[in-house]
Amino acid sequence: MEIDVKSLHPLEVKVLKNTEGELAAEKLVKNLSFNIGQCNQVFSWLSVKNLIKEKKRIKKIQYELTDLGKEYQEKGTPEELIVKTLKEKGSMTIPELSSYLGLENKDVGSAYGRLAKVGILSMGEGKKVFLNTSHGGWPSIVRTLLNRANESGFLEESELSDEQKEVISEISKKRGASASPFRLTEREEVIYEVTPEGRKVKEILKEKGITGEEIGAVTPEILSSGEWKGNAFREYNINIPPSRVLLGRKNPYGEFLEEVKNKLVSLGFEEFDGPLVETEFWNSDALFMPQFHSARDIHDVYHIKKPEYAKQIEQPFLDQVAQTHENGWKTGSRGWRYSFDRQFTRRLILRSQGTVLSAKTLPRAKVPGKYFGIVRCFRYDRVDATHLSDFYQTEGIVLGEEVNLRTLLGLLKMFAEEVAGAQEVMYVPGYFPFTEPSVEVHIKHQELGWFELGGSGIFRPEVTQPLGVEVPVLAWGLGIDRMALMSLGLNDLRELFSYDIESVRLRRRKH
Q: Which residues contact 8 (CB under 8 A, 6 or more apart)?
């Protein structure tokens, strides 16, 4: 392929002229002060023109120090603080340690579990925690890792010992890393080499004196300063035809959401909505999710920095929900048997699930009644073809004396077939702290295969009764973004929010 060297982008010119041997992103960042985006772009351009080719791939695993990790490095980990406190004060219960250290019960409980596992702590009479030894072991390895990471901000797995790898795997996460000292990232570094064609172009650039520093745009500043004098300019092809004029149209995903709303309203559902910022109370506590339970790990939330807490929670719901957690209240349940934290429940977050609005609707819902919402949610997640960190859910509840599991399965089948356009539907037993029984609905995508569309179930009495509802309540929360994949004939959630306007223009609904 004949290459017009004057048409090369300045980034391409700089790479070909100023690099030798293997090409990698880290090398361009170091030698040419490129950013990662520029590296990826120039590699793409040069590869398409066959001026470079892929030579090999190197898999790299890094552990990045999070804000929590920086805090631990400076102030001490919960494990270190517990050991220090017990060394000075003697044995204490977990609630006493939590109160003394100003930590949450779940953090102290997790720290105790790790230290007890390696024999540093034990629990004796009266559930008092006592110290077996304060030297070496797990806490000292974590301290070494935190100190090393604090210098550069991250650790390379290849530079860690087997013992350090084992420990850091316990205190790092890919998703929801804000609650862990380290964030685990996996990436492949692609190494390129210049092709024979690329070497020819490199020689031509040298002969013609093209440096990549040529001026690409004439600005008032360049004209007034005289900078243009004595400098070369990039050449442009003025014979390129202009872009065609296209009339505007609605965004396909926006149209899809409106159609879903219209279908549900036509079925007798009333729409609900609410603020993006919610309290822990409505997001989780009102749904009978205990404040210490591991079930909350699947709802990695974004916290609001200022203000951090809501002023109050509406009564009598706060008292009734709190008592339900502590002892079951009047629901016939034993509750979760812990001391409900009334300050923690006021903490402000971005809602992580649409079910928060179902809970808030219960106190004012009519019986019988059907309600839904198309709700934007926020959850720390690794972005891929079927996951986004902020996403839509279609959420709803059905209240009535006669509703049951068969009613719920019929609703799920209708959503999967009529809204998502799925040909194959599968039900899978699930677990959610707020429903019993719980069901996940899966659909089969022609490219992606089977994937979960969402969860559903019948609200437990511990959810409905504290909020003033005495009849069965069906609840469902489905990933409407994933429904749109099927309906719009796409293979990747990111295409729903693409900045590629041409792709959006050409997108058509499948019927």
A: 16, 201, 205, 210
Report residue 100 as tokens.
Answer: 């003394």
DSSP 409: H
Q: Classify each residue of 64-87 as buried b or exposed e, where b means 16 or more C-beta atoms within 10 Å of its C-beta.
A: bbbebbeebbeebbbbbbbbebbe
Q: What are phi and psi of 81, to 5 degrees?
A: -65, -35
User: pLDDT tens-digit profile of 44-67?
Assistant: 989 988 899 988 888 888 888 888
3-class DSSP state of 372: strand
Residue identified by tokens 């819902």 is: 365
CB distance 394 to 259 below 8 Å: no
Q: Distance between the two ends of the chain, CA-based, in angstroms?
A: 42
161 φ/ψ angles, rounded to the nearest 5 degrees: -75, 165
DSSP assignment string, 328-355:
-TTTT-----S---TTGGGBEEE---TH
CA distances, 156 to each of 57, 152, 186, 403 (Å): 17, 10, 11, 55
Q: Would you place residue 406 in the very low, low, confident or very high pLDDT band (cuts 50, 70, 90)? A: very high
Residue 121 sits in a domain of what CATH number? 1.10.10.10
**What backbone phi and psi angles, to 5 degrees, belong to 168?**
-70, -25
Quote the CA–CA distance of 482 and 386 in Å, as a whole number: 7
pLDDT, the chain, mean: 84
Identify the CA nearest to 179 among candidates 68, 101, 295, 302.
68
Domain-located, residue 113: yes
The Cα 450–Cα 448 span in angstroms is: 7
Q: Which two structure tokens, joined as six digits, stand for 309?
A: 């807490």
How many CB atoms lie under 10 A from the CB of residue 270?
Answer: 15
User: Residue 83 corresponds to which tokens in the numbers above?
Assistant: 């050991």
Q: Looking at the domain assignment, is residue 397 inside a domain?
A: yes
Taking the C-alpha atoms of 243, 248, 254 and 256 in order, what is their torsion angle to the nearest 10 degrees?
Answer: -90
Number of domains in the chain: 2
Dist. CA 387–CA 482, nearest whole Å: 9
* Helices 10-18, 25-32: inter-axial angle, 10-degree rounding: 90
Q: Quick check: 510 pLDDT over 50?
A: no
The string over 161-177, giving b where at least 16 C-beta atoms fall within 10 Å of a residue's C-beta and e elsewhere, is eeebeebbeebbbebbb
Distance CA 163, CA 142 (A): 11
Q: Give the CATH number, domain containing residue 439.
A: 3.30.930.10
Partners of 397 in the β-ladder:
371, 475
* Full-model pTM: 0.51
- Would you state the structure tokens that stand for residue 213, as one six-digit string? 């520093």
